[in-house]
């Protein structure tokens, strides 16, 4: 039995916990007041009854947080207010536009509206692309268990963005990732960037992306097109396919669509395709299970606790990518340190001393050290993380902990970051990566990774 009190003589008790599972000789006391001193004692029980209470070592402690170390203010203090003000301005403009559009729609006669709807039902299906010719396209994957939505002609819903494209669409693709967070605002965005103002090639391409997205929404009868897959699918014919994925809760009815088993769709396409030169559509169907697995795993959330994450980047001419695992692509490579996500003032002070020392051996972590348990947990986590990422222990001698802050992700999840040496944090183009991880890892574009974090922890 674990008892705690704000008084040295344990009168009155502040609380107690009885542990009946002795496989784990550890317990977490919750609901304490920061800065208040608490005394703890432990008693054991057998058939003869309770034994004498033994005082914990140290005998007392005060709950604290890493921010108490230097009394720092939150890093984002004041910024949230500025962002909220900007958001209110955008909302006001958006609401003004929506009201204006609604008034236009109300002046339209019902007969005209019905005729447009009928025309939409009978003729809009022809606007889906059946075969890919050199160009830029959007494909939509709506799935429920082993079924996915196809057109009435047994095709994946695809529309063309442009029949030509630049040699690199990286920046346009990354812009489209942001667009995928605001599907309901497509009409407003198209109105905000009229074609007459789009003199540059970049703006024209993005206007075409907006138009193609709106077309897909109209054809399917829904705004929500899902999350964007982390990379476009390309083939040797010059086709580029951007894929959005959405898992639905049941087999809804969509305009111009029906449900088909994925395996059946794959077998039909296999009989028609040319395996020597697969198109982007062939590649999509071949890898569909991997794509769906990525989508499902990118929605998983970590259980509460303190984690050690490994930050490794690589850069190219036009983007930066982050190393993640295929099992949890929305989180850095990581291992769990402990269940309690809080870093105390004493633990953070020890980390600061560790970062300022030449070696870990020079820092006090003896049995009498108040953070001995934390040191042991962190040491085990570092070794496990290095093993997971296939980094030999001797190559990690110059690795360091990020000491500016603890990353508090929300939902009682916190991260400490393990960083390579300064020159190796980001591998530049043409530079050999000194650390080659095992299979089961991905390099995600930074923007995709950030959106995954936001979606998971907000």
Structural class: alpha+beta
Beta-strand fraction estimate: 15-25%
Poorly predicted ranges:
105-125
Overall mean confidence score, pLDDT = 84
Q: How many domains make up the coordinates?
A: 3
Please tell me what the overall shape is: elongated
Domain Fibronectin type-III: 1-64
Protein name: Fibronectin type-III domain-containing protein
InterPro entries: ANKFN1, FN3_dom, FN3_sf, Ig-like_fold
Care to describe what's here?
It is a single chain. By secondary structure, the protein is of the alpha+beta class. The protein folds into three domains: 2-63, no CATH class; 112-297, no CATH class; 305-457, no CATH class. 32% of the residues lie in helices and 22% in strands. The chain has eleven helices and 22 strands. It has helices at 79-106, 110-123, 170-179, 186-192, 201-220, 262-272, 280-286, 288-297, 345-356, 372-388, 446-457; strands at residues 2-5, 15-17, 38-42, 45-46, 49-50, 54-61, 136-144, 147-150, 158-162, 227-228, 233-234, 240-247, 258-261, 305-310, 313-315, 320-325, 333-338, 400-401, 407-410, 413-419, 426-427, 441-445. Strands 7, 8, 9, 10, 11, 12 and 13 form a seven-stranded mixed β-sheet that branches. Strands 14, 17, 18, 19 and 20 form a five-stranded mixed β-sheet that branches. A four-stranded antiparallel β-sheet has the order 2-1-3-6, with no helix packed on it. α4 (186-192) runs antiparallel to α5. The longest helix has 28 residues, at 79-106. It is elongated and about 80 Å long. It starts with a strand and ends with a helix.
């Amino acid at each position: 039995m674990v008892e705690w009190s704000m008084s040295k003589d344990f009168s009155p008790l502040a609380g107690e916990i009885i542990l009946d599972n002795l496989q784990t000789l550890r317990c977490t006391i919750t609901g304490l007041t920061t800065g208040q001193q608490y005394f703890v004692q432990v008693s054991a029980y057998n058939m003869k009854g309770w034994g004498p209470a033994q005082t914990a070592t140290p005998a007392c402690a005060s709950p604290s947080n890493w921010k108490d170390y230097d009394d720092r203010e939150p890093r984002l203090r004041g910024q949230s207010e500025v962002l909220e003000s900007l958001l209110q301005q955008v909302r006001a403009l958006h609401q003004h536009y929506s009201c204006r559009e609604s008034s236009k729609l109300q002046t339209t006669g019902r007969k005209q509206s019905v005729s447009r709807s009928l025309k939409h039902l009978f003729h809009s299906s022809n606007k889906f692309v059946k075969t890919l010719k050199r160009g830029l396209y959007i494909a939509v994957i709506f799935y429920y268990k082993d079924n996915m939505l196809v057109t009435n002609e047994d095709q994946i819903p695809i529309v063309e963005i442009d029949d030509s494209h630049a040699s690199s669409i990286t920046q346009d693709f990354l812009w489209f990732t942001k667009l995928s967070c605001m599907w309901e605002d497509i009409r407003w965005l198209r109105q905000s960037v009229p074609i007459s103002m789009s003199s540059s090639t970049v703006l024209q391409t993005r206007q075409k992306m907006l138009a193609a997205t709106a077309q897909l929404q109209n054809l399917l009868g829904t705004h929500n097109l899902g999350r964007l897959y982390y990379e476009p699918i390309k083939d040797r014919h010059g086709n580029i396919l951007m894929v959005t994925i959405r898992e639905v809760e049941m087999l809804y009815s969509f305009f111009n669509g029906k449900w088909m088993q994925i395996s059946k769709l794959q077998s039909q396409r296999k009989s028609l395709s040319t395996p020597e030169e697969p198109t982007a559509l062939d590649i999509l169907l071949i890898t569909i299970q991997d794509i769906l697995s990525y989508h499902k795993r990118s929605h998983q959330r970590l259980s509460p606790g303190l984690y050690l994450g490994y930050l490794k980047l690589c850069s190219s001419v036009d983007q930066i990518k982050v190393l993640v695992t295929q099992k949890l692509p929305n989180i850095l490579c990581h291992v769990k340190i402990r269940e309690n996500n809080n870093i105390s003032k004493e633990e953070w002070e020890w980390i600061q001393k560790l970062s300022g020392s030449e070696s870990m051996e020079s820092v006090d972590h003896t049995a009498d050290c108040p953070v001995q348990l934390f040191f042991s947990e962190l040491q085990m986590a570092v070794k496990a993380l290095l093993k997971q990422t296939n980094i030999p222990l001797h190559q990690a001698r110059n690795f360091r902990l990020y000491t500016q802050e603890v990353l508090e992700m929300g939902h009682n999840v916190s991260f400490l970051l393990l960083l390579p040496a300064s020159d190796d944090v980001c591998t530049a183009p043409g530079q050999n990566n000194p650390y080659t991880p095992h299979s089961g890892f991905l390099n995600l574009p930074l923007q995709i990774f950030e959106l995954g974090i936001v979606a998971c922890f907000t």
